[in-house]
Amino acid sequence: MTMQQTPLLLSRILGRGAKLDPNEEIVTLQENGTHRQTLKTTWARANQLAHALKDSGIGLGDRVASFMRNNYRHLELYQAIPSMGAVLHTLNIRLGPKDIEYIINHAKDKIIFVDEDLLPLLEPLFDKIPTVERLIICRHDEGASCAFPSYIDYEDFIKDKEDNFSWPEIDENSPMGLCYTSGTTGKPKGVMYTHRSTYLHTLTQAMADSMSLTALDSVCGIVPMFHAMGWGLPFTASMLGCKQVMPHKFMTPPRLIELMSDEEVTISAGVPTIWQGIRSILESEEGKNYDLSHLNRLTCGGSAPPISLMRWYWENLGIEMVQGWGMTETNPLGTLSRKVAKRSHLKLTEDQQFENVAKAGLLMPGLEIEIVDEDWKVVPHDGESVGELLIRGPWIAAEYYNDPQPEKFHDGWLVTGDVAKIDPEEYLIIADRSKDLIKSGGEWISSVDLENHIISLEGVTQAAVVAQPHPKWDERPVAMVVLIEGSNVTTELILEHCAAAFAKWQLPDDVIFVEAIPLTSTGKIDKKTIRAQLEKDAYKLPSLRTA
Fold first, then answer.
1. What is the pLDDT of residue 353?
2. Cα separation of 276 and 253, whole Å?
3. H or E element at residue 204
4. For residue 399, with 0-12 CB atoms within 10 Å meaning exposed, 13-18 middle and 19 or more buried, which class applies?
5. What is the pLDDT of residue 474?
6. According to CATH, where is 3.40.50.12780 located in the chain?
7. CA triple 280-275-369, angle to 5 deg
8. CA 424 to chain centre
9. Residue 547 has pLDDT above 50, yes or no
């Protein structure tokens, strides 16, 4: 008996929600109020967009870029471009002009869709991106002018087009999306996602033991849609028929809380700094004005959230904070850590449950991970042995787009660049990025472990630990710390706090209090920038300063 070999194409699932629940809403926050349109209208406009792109000469495999925020038009691109067989290339609006220029030219983008308030960021590149034939401007009543030789407003672009497109039957291994790494080391590297990889990721993301998304959810994706395809949420929510709530450019904690309250959001996704900012408001008198009773889980990625933050949301609001680990190269989800992840965990105490939540999590079904030493030998899963983290599976990159980097791939595995442990229960524990480990006196110190411990101290909101050169010990750790306003935490208190968990030689040599810690374009601590600034300031460790 044979089964039908139906290609796994996104066109088969992205319109499903609109068909099943056509009158549910896509909500986008605007300057004054919200823009609302139904799932049915969104899918119809995606069909119109596909016609407009085809009439403009866009064909199979052509790269179409978005330089946009989280809004309803960006969602229409998410649905139309892959479904018609073209490639959606989400440009990271937070990168510098040199990186953006390199990425556009490397991808050979033919058309760029741009939110009009972002035009000034693209304008310096207008004469440096020869493959771009046209800009499509997404207007938000801001009256921006454009000097690009060929452009048209989005609404005029799709106007009068048919709202029923005949999606092509193509190979499921055809490309559908292109994302570039943030370029913290060397030039940004492109990762091409296929229909098959994203289809499988979408199905897995909805699983109860994964992010547990259902058609009943009101989803607020705060993670940018230009970052690793918005963690896949726009695809999964479109498939299921979720209500989707989008903040556009209004990313301050008060606006986000108001939006989530008004739209009865049940699940949201973002980096730890977002949830710390929202917590601060909820703890204030102002926080009493908002109703987050529908919100039951927050997905957190980019960097590890402190246990204290996860416990606060659970104990005060009954909201589960789900930690996830992944990369642009993993499309993006690799592991997730739920409060109760196994039936046997029902018997654990709450303290034990939170010890597990603090880990990077359990592997999503369909993936494999391993940790190896420098000779590629597998190290034990004992929670103590440390090694280079490898991952493979149907939505894991096997190469970079037009950029051979053989050292990043080994015998079918992606070499992640993370140093990790795996415990006996198969939880992944990220020890550090390999380039951020601190080697002192021949021994390794995990900057991540130090950071997480410092953040657990009451009064501390953020911490970053970086290596600084030392003539005797090679490197020594230095901590940059951001305090909650009004906190009286001192250097001595931080070192005393660390001494309870770390050996004396692992303690930071210095604690520097700062107002803010630089973040990368994807919301991670930017240690490259921190190290460069310390070098520029001619920083010296206290023990090396002359009297």
1. 95
2. 9
3. helix 195-205
4. middle
5. 82
6. 8-18+33-201
7. 150
8. 28
9. no
What is the C-alpha to C-alpha distance for residues 176 and 192, in angstroms, rounded to an integer?
A: 7
Measured distance CA(463)–CA(314) in Å, rounded: 23
| pLDDT for the residue 185 | 55
Residue numbers annotated as active site: 181, 329, 439, 444
Predicted TM-score (pTM) of the model is 0.87
Peptide bond just before 394 cis, omega within 30 deg: no
CATH top-level class of 368-434: mainly beta
Contacts (Cβ under 8 Å, ≥6 apart) of 213:
205, 206, 219, 233, 236, 237, 240, 242, 267
**pLDDT for the residue numbered 184:** 52
Among the four given CATH numbers 3.65.10.10, 2.60.40.10, 2.30.110.10, 3.40.50.12780, the one describing domain 8-18+33-201: 3.40.50.12780
Cβ(385)–Cβ(373) below 8 Å: no
Q: Does residue 442 have a pLDDT over 90?
A: no
Contact indicator for 464, 529 with CB cutoff of 8 Å? no
pLDDT in tens, 16-27: 999 999 999 999
CATH 2.30.38.10 residue ranges of the chain are 368-434
Instruction: Give the Å distances, CA to CA, from 467 to 183, 303, 464, 523.
Output: 20, 18, 10, 21
Residue 6 has which token pair? 């139906």
CB contact at 8 A, 517 and 462: yes
Give the pLDDT confidence score for residue 468 in this predicted structure: 93
Closest by Cα among 304, 301, 313, 138 to 232: 301
Angle between the 233-240 and 72-83 helix axes, to the nearest 10 degrees? 80
Domain with CATH 3.30.300.30 in the chain: 437-544
User: pLDDT value at position 125?
Assistant: 97
CATH value of 437-544 in 3.90.1210.10, 3.30.300.30, 3.40.250.10, 3.40.50.720: 3.30.300.30
**Helices and strands: H and E segment counts in the chain:** 15, 26
Give the angle subtended at the CA of 236 by the CAs of 181 and 428, to the nearest 5°: 55
Locate tokens 């039936």: which residue? 343
